[in-house]
Amino acid sequence: MAQNKTPLNRLVVYQLVCMVLFALLAGCTNDDITDLKQFVADVKSRPKSPIKPLPEIKVIEPFVFKAEDLRDPFRPLAQPEQTEQAAAATGSGIKPDTTRRKEELESFPLEVLKMVGSVVMDKDLWGLVKADDKTIYRVKLGNYIGKNYGKIIRISADKIELMEIVPDKPGTWREQQASLVLTE
């Protein structure tokens, strides 16, 4: 015998299931909210902390831009090498050779260079110089180091001696001896 289920029977079964579920859910409610009331009372009974004052507003002075006091941004800057060449041309006596190609260690001030050793290669004594970029350079007699045209004139196992050419008066130069002593 075949079961005869019509859509109407399915609808009735669905409605009965829904009613039973709602009845079960209605029985799950609880009217006891004493724990909630106790929590609210505890929060309200805490001492009230003072409200922090607003931060003070700092007054910033406005900046007025005056272009007449500034250099023209479309004109090239004077190059330091050009001013050195112009000053050297006006003076007499000792002058640095500004036409020669600069060596790597001339880009560092002498204060940041350190002698870290020496080495003999092909019967020549070479100095080992460490720059502040943590690179160790090998130098020999006649090399230039430092910003003041320092030419190496003597290398020993514990010292590198050089002769610098420094500006003295406008347009004049003088020689000054300097050295790097073994540090490491």
Describe the structure concisely for a colleague.
The chain has a domain at 96-181: SH3 type barrels (Roll). The chain is built from three helices and seven strands, in the order αααβββββββ. It has helices at residues 7-26, 34-45, 80-90; strands at residues 114-121, 124-130, 136-139, 144-145, 150-155, 159-167, 173-181.
Question: Topology of this protein?
Answer:
Elements: H1 7-26, H2 34-45, H3 80-90, E1 114-121, E2 124-130, E3 136-139, E4 144-145, E5 150-155, E6 159-167, E7 173-181
Antiparallel strand pairs: 1-2, 2-3, 4-5, 5-6, 6-7
For this entry, give a set of tags.
four-stranded antiparallel beta sheet, 3 helices, SH3 type barrels, 24% strand, 184 residues
CATH class type of one domain: Mainly Beta
Q: What CATH architecture label of one domain applies?
A: Roll
The major β-sheet equals: 4 strands, antiparallel
- From the N-terminal CA to the C-terminal CA, the straight-line distance is 107 Å
N-to-C order of helices and strands = HHHEEEEEEE
Mean pLDDT: 83
Q: What is the percentage of strand-forming residues?
A: 15-25%
Estimated helix fraction: 10-25%
Gyration radius, rounded: 44 Å
Strand order of the largest sheet: 4-5-6-7
CATH topology of one domain, by name, is SH3 type barrels
Any idea what the shape is?
Answer: elongated
Count of helical regions: 3
Number of beta strands: 7
* Helix/strand class: alpha+beta
- Regions with pLDDT < 50 over 5+ consecutive residues? none
